[in-house]
Automatic annotation (TrEMBL):
This is Glutathione S-transferase C-terminal domain-containing protein. Residues 1-11 have a biased composition (Polar residues). Residues 167-291 form the GST C-terminal domain. The lineage of its organism: Bacteria, Bacillati, Actinomycetota, Actinomycetes, Propionibacteriales. Pfam families: GST_C_2, GST_N_2. Residues 1-46 are annotated as: Disordered. It comes from Kribbella sancticallisti. It comes from the Bacteria.
Length: 315
């Protein structure tokens, strides 16, 4: 069998099995803690504008969700932002884009410093997005699916006037879509790219394109996945679609079709890209350099492709 990019997350079958999220604290309106205090007895941290720092890589699709939702809801002043270098070294994500290579608020050079300060035994991959408490220096959460939901529901008092309601009152349909899109598309592209056997790669590839075919059809008569208005699931699909032709099609061998060959999905992705909060958060250069330069098992020569031409997103 060929070597895996992340050995501990590769099953004996060759299938990619993503690690769990280690830190699952919640910042909640229901916290019984006073400002400046840690979590209450239920693990809920107090909502406090200016206190927490969201750490992202612009390359990462899971972090990208939180960046978009923070912007859509107008939470930029309430939750500050740290951006890591898209290229990890052997110690992981680093703050080499900042002066002196340190995050100016947290004072750290590597994200691993706060992971290890929070859990000295931590041995998994140090991942973005993460929300870090600037008072204690602890990681509150790296639970990326919960982070965006909580920005909608728990930070509501700090949303900008007219902020979109990204969570529908009736959640069943959205939650079902979220689950299918996560399994087959968001994580599906990784299951293609990180598979180490032909069979597991082909199974992931088939599930991915079967799901994209269903979504293509769904968008035949609607602008957004749930109908007329934008919701959380659109954000989640967008961050994978925007990386599709630049990275997943080639690097992860998701190459039955390009995104541009699905008329509805391509029109939908471009429509989102051109809305406030979406295109302005996309950095194709960092996206491409991250994937092609850090997955050395998949792309050992480190060549970063020149294309595709990003102007197609705005033309
Ligand atoms: N927290 C999740 C998802 C977040 C995630 O995978 N983020 C990637 C970037 S897209 C990351 O931080 N990877 C660190 C690494 O590859 O070492 C996980 O642990 O798998």
């Amino acid at each position: 069998m060929t070597p895996a990019q992340f050995v501990t997350e590769s099953a004996p079958s060759g299938e990619w099995k993503r690690q769990g999220n280690r830190f699952t604290g919640r910042i909640s309106r229901d916290s019984a803690s006073a400002p400046g205090e840690g979590p209450d007895e239920h693990g809920r941290w107090p909502v406090e504008p200016g206190r927490y720092r969201l750490v992202v890589s612009l390359a990462c699709p899971w972090a990208h969700r939180s960046l978009i939702v923070r912007k859509l809801l107008g939470l930029e002043d309430a939750i500050s932002l740290a951006i890591v270098d898209p290229i990890r070294d052997e110690q992981g994500w680093r703050f080499t884009l900042d002066p002196d290579g340190r995050d100016p608020v947290l004072g750290i050079s590597y994200l691993s410093e706060v992971y290890l300060a929070t859990d000295p035994q931590y041995e998994g991959r140090v991942t973005v997005p993460a929300i870090v408490d600037t008072v204690t220096g602890q990681v509150v959460t790296n639970d990326y699916p919960q982070i965006t939901l909580d920005l909608s529901t728990e930070w509501i008092d700090f949303h900008r006037p007219g902020a979109p309601d990204l969570i529908p009152a009736e959640r069943e349909e959205m939650d079902q879509l979220i689950e299918e899109i996560y399994a087959d598309v968001n994580n599906g592209v990784y299951r293609c790219g990180f598979a180490t056997t032909q069979e597991t790669y082909e199974a992931a590839y088939d599930a991915l394109f079967a799901r994209l075919d269903v979504l293509e059809q769904r968008l035949d008569d609607r602008d957004y996945l749930l109908g007329d208005s934008l919701s959380e699931v659109d954000v989640r699909l967008f961050t994978t679609l925007v990386r599709f032709d630049a990275v997943y099609h080639g690097h992860f061998k998701c190459n039955r079709n390009k995104l541009t060959e699905f008329p509805n999905l391509w029109a939908y992705a471009r429509r989102l890209y051109q809305q406030p909060g979406f295109g302005e958060t996309v950095d194709f250069d960092q996206i491409k350099r991250h994937y092609y330069l850090t997955h050395t098992t998949i792309n050992p020569n480190g060549i970063v492709p020149k294309g595709p031409d990003p102007r197609s997103w705005t033309a």
